[in-house]
Write a structure and sequence with these properties.
The chain has 15 helices and 5 strands. The protein has helices at 2-33, 40-45, 61-66, 69-76, 90-100, 113-118, 127-130, 141-151, 183-191, 230-244, 263-275, 287-290, 306-323, 336-339, 345-353, and strands spanning 55-58, 80-82, 108-112, 248-253, 279-282. It has a 5-stranded parallel beta sheet with strand order 2-1-3-4-5, sandwiched between helices.
Length: 355
């Protein structure tokens, strides 16, 4: 009996060590080899020191192109980070937050509305469904729950998702998006990945595109409402998850010019927020107050560049001051990643001046 028990313990220990090793190698592959991929920052979020993130931003590219977490610390000492991923599926938003709560005592979740609206669209882009799952730690049970949850979604593409699509180590890549292949740096990424988490999920955009104006989207006569959809279900799950963890929830709509956005769905999301007494910050409602310039502050019609992100972030910082009591962590050594961050935003600005 003792031999059998010892053997079981050995097997479990081996599996745990194997998962730990796979996870570490996956971190290196994502953070080092995919440096040009904005989604990699989400994976690095889970390497941050425990209970150091007070505010989490989530959603899709509107969020990781439009909000700069470092500014919150520089100006107010607020520790924040983004777990937004490209075209983030709302089911993935829920599971990413569920995993985030395992490591962080989050005070405020800021959720961008466009990713919620986009989640109801049929798509042929597999990354919409996998970009969140792939960034969860490989040892996490939530990763595999997330995988099965999305796989059972009533979209034809979801049934085709395999475990290979969500485990970085199983994926073959011919282009790693990086010139420097120093073994020393790869090892450093593996041992201390949080050290390279410079922008805390923000993805600087330096191109400039003149936008003719803001356009919220179109209303459709065949709209039946979001109630009864998995979007409504998962909005409620996210709300309940925040409530269980004594976290406030803020719904944000970033500025864009889009003809394919379903405005009925956006309005349905706002109606849901009103029912739940969830705060909404809509950049469309006070666009002039943001000082965002349509001539210089967009990367394209739907995403802000660095100039626009600075203004959008400044507007959100002011909103935080008026609506939330968040701690100032300046001078606290536990927040050294924010305090001593050496990411060169001036270089980003210089790139824009050269455009």
């Amino acid at each position: 009996m003792k031999k059998k028990l010892f053997r079981v313990i050995e097997i479990i220990s081996f599996i745990c060590l194997l998962l730990f090793a796979i996870n570490k190698i996956s971190i290196a592959k994502i953070s080092y080899c995919y440096e040009s991929n904005p989604a990699r920052s989400t994976r690095l979020f889970f390497e941050l020191p425990k209970n150091t993130v007070d505010v989490v931003f989530t959603g899709d590219s509107h969020m990781f192109c439009g909000i700069i977490p470092q500014m919150f610390f520089d100006e107010e000492g607020i520790s924040s980070s983004s777990i937004a991923t490209p075209t983030q599926f709302i089911k993935n938003t829920y599971w990413l937050l569920k995993e985030a709560y395992k490591k962080q005592d989050i005070k405020l979740v800021v959720l961008e509305s466009h990713s919620i609206e986009h989640s109801l669209r049929e798509t042929d882009d597999l990354s919409q469904f996998t970009s969140g799952i792939i960034m969860l730690p490989d040892y996490s049970i939530n990763k595999y729950r997330n995988f099965h949850d999305v796989k059972n979604t009533d979209f034809s593409l979801c049934s085709e998702i395999t475990i290979d699509d969500v485990i970085p180590l199983l994926q073959f890549n011919s282009d790693y998006g990086r010139d420097d292949s120093s073994l020393k740096k790869i090892i450093d990424f593996t041992i201390n990945p949080a050290k390279y988490y410079k922008t805390f999920g923000y993805y600087p955009q330096t191109s400039i595109n003149k936008v003719d104006g803001l356009y919220e989207g179109n209303e459709y006569d065949d709209y039946k409402g979001i109630k009864g959809t998995y979007v409504y279900e998962y909005l409620n799950k996210i709300y309940e998850l925040c409530k269980e963890n004594n976290t406030e929830l803020l719904l944000v709509r970033m500025p864009y010019n889009s003809t394919n956005t379903n405005l009925n769905v956006i309005n349905g999301i706002f109606e849901w927020a009103n029912e739940k007494n969830v705060e909404v910050l809509d950049y469309f409602q006070d666009f002039d107050g943001t000082n965002i310039d349509l001539n210089t502050d967009f990367r394209d019609n739907t995403h802000l560049n660095y100039l626009g992100a600075r203004k959008a972030t400044r507007y959100l910082i002011d909103y935080f001051k008026d609506h939330y009591q968040l701690d100032n962590h300046k001078g606290d050594s536990r927040y050294s990643l924010w305090e001593n961050n050496d990411f060169d935003y001036e270089e980003v600005l210089n790139k824009m001046r050269g455009n």
